[in-house]
Amino acid sequence: MNEIKIPFGLCEITYDDMKLPAMADEGVFSAIPTYTKMFGGALNDVNGYILESYEVTFKVSVNDESYETLKLMQTLETHEDGLYDDPSNFDIEGKRLIIHPFDAVDKEFDICIWNAYISPETGFKRTYKKETDEFEIVFIGTRVKNKSNPHMNNTYFFIGDWEKVGGYNA
After folding, report:
1. How many structural domains are present in the chain?
2. Model pTM?
3. Beta bridge partners of 135
4. Within a domain: residue 37?
5. What is the pLDDT of residues 68-108, one digit of tens each?
């Protein structure tokens, strides 16, 4: 087996066609399944599991506060003189989110969330301080139906060279 060296440190983040600015602090990818145990047999032992839910998220802090990055917040809408809040208007249509390790030459360690949207439940908090300001963005991954590639049907994310999956359209 080949030696695997996973890069660590900073990463480049692309959401749909928008490259996010450099991270301020850290980015955390998590994929947490919740199972229900199936019991059976004479001793009522656990004989299987049923997937109940699957929570896929990527939480990142960025420190580039511009109208373009602020518009990533689900509840902010464009006005001719700035941005205003509209907490009743949010979009859960997913877009491709790519997390690429900064020093990686190729895509073998990329994480691709096929269908991610920005959580409307993440509020906007602005702190005025001497240090660089940052705000948090939480992406939520949803499963996709993929009829063109049955192996990728009902998947949430892919680790590796996601462009080589072929025939995949989220």
Report:
1. 1
2. 0.79
3. 62
4. yes
5. 777 777 778 888 888 888 877 777 888 999 998 877 788 88
